[in-house]
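Title: Comparing notes on inverse folding

I've been comparing how different people in this forum approach sequence design from structure. To keep things fair, I'm posting one structure and asking everyone to reply with a full sequence. Here's the target:
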């Protein structure tokens, strides 16, 4: 169970940094502030470093898919709250399916390898 917690934790951190990076990119595209650009570059570097650390704890596929799923949820919530984008129920249903499948992969990754 500690392995599942470690994988879930690093996945959440990766997704959070990636959401921050996406927000900085969106804001930079509108405002052209050098500080937003610098923050985005720093977030990209942090993302690379965190991803390399994540490889110690899990398979690339499990961490990457989890990161993408959590990031997708974070971006959809951010778009709704900050930018007023209205996502339909069909999109939220797709996200719920992705989250369920990611949970399955996460718990399967924690099982010992067969063979």
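Reply #1:
Here's my take.
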């Amino acid at each position: 169970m500690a392995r599942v917690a470690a994988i879930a934790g690093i996945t959440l951190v990766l997704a959070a940094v990636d959401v921050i990076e996406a927000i900085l990119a969106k804001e930079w595209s509108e405002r052209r502030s050098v500080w937003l650009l610098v923050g985005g570059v720093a977030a990209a570097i942090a993302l690379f470093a965190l991803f390399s650390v994540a490889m110690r704890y899990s398979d690339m596929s499990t961490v990457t898919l989890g990161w993408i799923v959590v990031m997708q949820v974070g971006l959809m919530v951010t778009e709704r709250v900050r930018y007023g984008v209205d996502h339909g129920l069909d999109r939220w249903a797709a996200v719920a399916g992705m989250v369920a499948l990611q949970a399955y992969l996460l718990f399967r990754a924690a099982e010992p390898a067969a063979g």
